[in-house]
What we know:
Distance between the termini of chain A: 25 Å
Oligomer: homodimer
Strand content of chain A: 15-25%
Mean pLDDT of chain A: 93
Largest interface: A-B, 15 and 15 residues
Helix content of chain A: 25-40%
Number of helices of chain A: 3
Amino acid sequence: MTDLSKETCSACEIGSPLVPHDEQLELLKGLDGWIIDNSDISKLIKEFQLNNYEQSIKFTNLIADLAESQDHHPKITLEWGRVSIEWWSHKIKGLHMNDFICAAKSDEIFNAL
Amino acid sequence: MTDLSKETCSACEIGSPLVPHDEQLELLKGLDGWIIDNSDISKLIKEFQLNNYEQSIKFTNLIADLAESQDHHPKITLEWGRVSIEWWSHKIKGLHMNDFICAAKSDEIFNAL
């Protein structure tokens, strides 16, 4: 399986392809603990446990750096000892390959904390 | 009216007083654009509009600094151009005077950006 964390986000414009459902499930197998929430716009979501607030804000900043470097911006919810990340592609209202790449990169960042 | 932003959070332990409902509404008048969400545990919530992601993460970090300095930690939701803050007191499952103080301090931080 391709190591998604080593890939780079491509430009995502209106009309860029959504990842088909069966492929989403296949890609999900290569990720650690992410779920797909299909309740509204499909989103890749994971809640990370941190030891304290300092770690939570550190992790949040690293994800923000990733977001800026990839020009792809997740929703980050920061609480004491817990950070939730939601990746989806606003312009195509769903999941692009970029979201799976960024999820894999998020795990890599978390594992290197 | 007391300038809440100049006050400091007091220790909040299990058994510390919740702000009574009528007093909550009075304190809310002294804040700018905050709402109280009573759908579950009462929380003070405000969504701040920022110009871009850089500003969003800057504001998030300043609120995190406030949280650490007051030893009172909100839920912060960071998105491109938008940061939502939720203050409530976990130990008493509702609104303590600390939450109103931190809401006022959050506005002060935002206005100084």
